[in-house]
Design goal:
Keywords: Leucine-rich repeat, Repeat. InterPro entries: CDIRP, LRR_dom_sf. The chain has an 18-stranded parallel beta sheet, covered by helices on one side. Strands 28-30-32-34 form a 4-stranded parallel beta sheet, with helices on one face. Strands 2-4-6 form a 3-stranded parallel beta sheet, with no helix packed on it. The N and C termini lie far apart (74 Å). It contains 2 helices and 35 strands. The chain is elongated. By secondary structure, the chain is mainly beta.
């Protein structure tokens, strides 16, 4: 039985418009743009309809153009020039044939069925997103993108084709085994998490924002960035060494839940530092300056020798094998947690705690009075 599709024309719903301002014909059940003005001075929004073609639509749009969430399989017959943003996301496109050569604002072709970026689009003034498609390659991508570039949630095995300079770069949730072909300059965040990377070879040398590589089978950090001016997260891998880690990290450094037995290679100055959930027996080579929190919990530490002398946040050395607090920072501005160890004494180098002091679950049982005699505690003393 054949289903009859009722035609709903632009002219039927919107009437005659001169195109001198914005036109919003979104979510009106349109099957055709017939009757639409050829030139629209402002924004044109035909998203959320039943369009299978852009025929009879405007060929020149002076503002934003959105044809998202329709049933388009091609952008042919679409506008040749769009002054600002172009949004064709949420359709059934398998290529970008018919896209304009240049978009001054953002270009979003995410959540389609794209298998290639080949087309006429060469330059995007701001952000470009082709995430959540079926891409195995980025060949044909715009050679110049003025903002962020997102190609996450595809089937990429290579980064060949990406522009050399971007804002944020997101290639997460693909099938990448190498970062060769990455942008040379990343002025924002770099996210290569949840791929199949065994190393960071090919990553840019400098990342102005955060660097995320979590959820990979990394065994080495060699080849990764030298300088990260945001946070660096290499947690939940199979790392046995931090050799190759960035020399400088201005934000947080997280290497928790790996198989580390040494902190050699760690940056020496960070905000927060988290090396919990490893196989560390020593804190030698730990950062000497931590301006935030320090966590070395759930390791195999028998001593705190090597810990930073001063921690401006909280210090957590719980669930290790410590028998004393020798080597602990002299001053901790936040909480100090040494619970779940083998402590029989609280004697050590710790002199001042600005937050709570937590020492329950040790071999010895300690009273609050005992704890407060050992060091100055500004907050609560939790001994159970």
């Amino acid at each position: 039985m054949t289903t009859t599709v009722t035609k709903v024309l632009f002219a039927d719903i919107m009437g005659h418009l001169d195109g001198k301002g914005d036109i919003d014909c979104s979510n009106r059940g349109l099957t055709s743009l017939e009757g639409c003005p050829g030139i629209v001075a402002g924004n044109f929004n035909c998203s959320g309809n039943q369009l299978t073609s852009l025929e009879s639509g405007p060929h020149n749009v002076g503002g934003d153009f959105s044809c998202s969430n329709n049933k388009l399989t091609t952008l042919e017959a679409g506008p040749e020039e769009v002054l600002w943003d172009y949004d064709c996301s949420g359709n059934q496109l398998n290529s970008l044939t018919g896209a304009p050569k240049k978009v001054h604002g953002n270009f979003d072709c995410s959540t389609n069925q794209l298998t290639t970026l080949q087309g006429s689009l060469k330059k995007v003034g701001n952000d470009f997103s082709c995430s959540n498609n079926l891409l195995t390659s980025l060949k044909g991508a715009p050679h110049k993108v003025g903002g962020d570039f997102s190609c996450s949630d595809n089937q990429l095995t290579t980064l060949e084709g990406v522009p050399h300079e971007v804002g944020d770069f997101d290639c997460s949730n693909n099938q990448l085994a190498t970062l060769d072909g990455s942008p040379e300059e990343v002025h924002g965040d770099f996210d290569c998490s949840h791929n199949q990377l065994a190393s960071l070879a090919g990553a840019p040398h400098f990342v102005i924002g955060n660097f995320f590589c979590a959820g990979n089978p990394l065994t080495s950090l060699k080849g990764g960035p030298n300088f990260v001016y945001g946070n660096f997260d290499c947690s939940n891998h199979q790392l046995v060494s931090l050799k190759g880690a960035p020399k400088e990290v201005e934000g947080n450094f997280n290497c928790s839940e790996n198989q580390l037995s040494s902190l050699a290679g760690a940056p020496q100055e960070v905000r927060d530092f988290d090396c919990s959930g490893n196989q560390l027996t020593t804190l030698e080579s730990a950062p000497h300056k931590v301006s935030g929190n320090f966590s070395c919990s759930a390791n195999q530490l028998t001593s705190l020798t090597g810990a930073p002398k001063k921690v401006k946040g909280s210090f957590n050395c719980s669930n290790n094998q410590l028998s004393s607090l020798d080597g602990a920072p002299k001053k901790v501005k936040g909480d100090f947690d040494c619970s779940g160890n083998q402590l029989t004494t609280l004697d050590g180098t710790l002199k001042k705690v600005g937050g709570d002091f937590i020492c329950g679950g040790n071999t010895g049982l300690f009273s609050e009075d005992q704890a407060r005699v050992i060091c100055s505690i500004k907050g609560n003393c939790i001994t159970v």
